[in-house]
Design goal:
This protein is mostly beta strands. Helix content is about 10%, strand content about 15%. The radius of gyration is 29 Å and the shape is elongated. About 45% of the residues are buried.
Length: about 270
């Protein structure tokens, strides 16, 4: 979009006339002597300047040959991109963008499985980091997101540790440790993930020990804004941890697999 540039255009913005009564356009009706609405300079200049204000605020030079500049400007001014498990890839900084607000969650650890009469540990939550990043237009940044960790098998197998999510060299968040499986006795609590490199860095919650009286599977660790998975019935797989980054719960009492954990997440805003 560009300002009007015909030979009769004014080189400066004319002073608007005093405001009249607000209304709506009409095509008029000559049979009833209703005049069509006159589109005057004040209205057209207002529309032109309102639209150009958005384009210029996004740092885009007006162009007479590009009719998609307003859409591009809205995208730049209110842009957001998500990287979810399986969505890792490269982020290219859009034109006119020099700062990014980035949030990163590591993956949760999954719960351990158990055999009859035992109780396994819950997985720990993933870490979290948030950072304001100084960037340049066109810069390419690798984004890696932790995958979902599957709970340990009903043979008493350990769960799986959560993976690390990273946004280039700016910030990262490690995953929570896995819940320990149990074939005799109880599983153990392990280490949560942690954020690093951010302006704000949080640890996830630790996984809980499996315990008796009554026999319970170990609690799952929370992540930032995400609670760990809940227990299931005797002999059933517990609920998965809440996305993003929460751990999976351990199980107890009968042969059952541990709860799955949630994968990581990266949110980029500009």
């Amino acid at each position: 979009m560009n300002r009007i540039d015909v030979p009769s255009a004014s080189p400066t913005l004319p002073t608007p006339d005093p405001a009249g009564t607000s209304g709506y356009f009409t095509k008029g009706n000559p049979l009833t002597a209703v005049a069509a609405t006159i589109v005057d300079q004040d209205f057209m200049n207002s529309v032109q300047e309102e639209l150009l204000a958005v384009i210029l605020a996004a740092g885009i030079p007006p162009s007479k040959t590009n009719n998609a500049q307003l859409l591009q400007a809205l995208f730049l001014l209110h842009g957001v991109q998500y990287f979810v498990p399986g969505g890792s890839g490269n982020f290219t900084v859009p034109p006119g963008v020099y700062s990014l607000d980035v949030e990163v969650w590591g993956g949760g650890g999954s719960g351990g499985g158990c055999t009859v009469g035992n109780f396994s540990g819950g997985g720990a939550g993933g870490g979290y980091a948030r950072k304001r990043c100084a960037v340049t237009p066109g810069q390419v940044i690798a984004a890696t997101v932790a995958a979902v960790a599957i709970g340990g098998a009903s043979t008493g197998a350990n769960g799986a540790a959560g993976g690390t999510s990273t946004f280039g060299a700016f910030c990262s968040a490690t995953g929570g440790s896995a819940g320990i499986g149990a074939t005799a006795g109880g599983g153990l609590s392990l280490t949560p993930g942690n954020g690093s490199g951010g302006d704000i860095n949080f640890k996830g919650g630790p996984g809980g020990n499996g315990g008796a009286a009554p026999i319970n599977g170990g609690y799952a660790g929370n992540a930032f804004c995400s609670p760990g998975g809940n227990s299931g019935g005797a002999g059933s797989k517990p609920e998965a941890g809440t996305f993003p980054g929460a751990g999976g719960r351990g199980t107890a009492g009968a042969a059952a697999a541990g709860g799955d954990a949630a994968g990581g997440l990266i949110v980029v805003r500009w």
